[in-house]
């Protein structure tokens, strides 16, 4: 089951869904023991490109990174570096 934005704030254009309101997001770093820490948050708006920045002292080969929904902590995207 993938992430779906709140349907009350989205519209369809040429078969694609676009949100018409802002949504909050969090960038979370997970260490090898499974402990997560939020390292950045931001608000996305329709038509806006956001480039959040963050740092961690953990070695890059020992973490995974997740983008989570700000309102419910749902994982939207994850990767192991």
Provide a descriptive summary of the structure in words.
This protein has strands at residues 10-13, 16-19, 23-31, 36-44, 63-69, 75-80. With 81 residues, it is an all-beta fold. It has one domain (7-80).
How are the SSEs placed, and which strands pair?
Elements: E1 10-13, E2 16-19, E3 23-31, E4 36-44, E5 63-69, E6 75-80
Antiparallel strand pairs: 1-2, 3-4, 3-5, 5-6
Secondary-structure element string: EEEEEE
Distance between the termini: 23 Å
Largest sheet at a glance?
A: 4 strands, antiparallel
- Number of β-strand runs: 6
How many domains in all?
A: 1
Fraction in helix = under 10%
Beta-strand proportion: over 45%
Give the helix tally: 0
Q: What is the CA-based Rg, rounded? A: 14 Å
User: How are the strands of the largest sheet arranged?
Assistant: 4-3-5-6
Secondary-structure-based class equals mainly beta
Report the uncertain regions. none
Outline type: elongated
Q: What's the rounded overall pLDDT mean?
A: 82
């Amino acid at each position: 089951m993938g992430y779906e934005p709140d349907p009350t704030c989205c519209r369809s254009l040429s078969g694609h869904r676009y949100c018409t309101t802002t949504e909050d997001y969090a960038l979370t770093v997970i260490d090898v023991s499974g402990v997560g820490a939020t390292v950045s948050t931001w608000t996305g708006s329709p038509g806006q490109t956001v480039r959040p920045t963050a740092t961690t002292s953990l070695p890059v080969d020992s973490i995974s990174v997740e983008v989570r929904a700000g309102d419910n902590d749902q994982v939207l995207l994850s990767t192991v570096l």
